[in-house]
Amino acid sequence: MANHVSAKKRSRQNKVKKAVNSQYLSKFRTALNKFNSCVEGKNEEEIQKSYSAVNSIMAKAVKKGIFKKENISRKLSSLSKQISKK
């Protein structure tokens, strides 16, 4: 357990940050799963909506510093390739 005031504060901040990051990660995974199910369903309108939602969530996560820009760029490229194959 932390003894210094600054270490206690850092511990509290880390708990809050971890909770926020896990929420973004959960939203990302949910949106990605929804996108994959739409791609399997082959409904063009739903695919575009879910791709837009995934793109938005990823951009917000990059802005918050949860993911690196290169990682998200690679993932979006992969998802757009999935759309073009169908």
Q: What this model shows, in words?
A:
This protein is mainly alpha-helical and 86 residues long. Helices cover 87% and strands 0% of the residues. The chain has helices spanning 5-41, 44-64, 69-85. Helix 2 runs antiparallel to helix 3 (69-85). It is elongated and about 60 Å long. The relative contact order is 0.11. The mean pLDDT is 92.
List the defining traits of the structure above.
86 residues; mainly alpha; 3 helices; 87% helix; 0% strand
Main beta sheet, described? none
The proportion of residues forming helix, as a percent range, comes to: over 70%
**What percentage of amino acids are in beta strands?**
under 5%
Kindly state the number of beta strands. 0
Q: What structural category arises from helix and sheet content?
A: mainly alpha
Helical segment tally? Answer: 3
Provide the low-confidence segments as ranges: none
Q: How would you sum up the global shape?
A: elongated
Rg, Cα atoms, Å: 17 Å
Quote the average pLDDT: 92
Distance between the termini: 54 Å
Helix-strand pattern, N to C? HHH
Describe, in short, the structure shown.
The chain is mainly alpha-helical and 86 residues long. The protein is built from 3 helices and no strands. The radius of gyration is 17 Å and the shape is elongated.
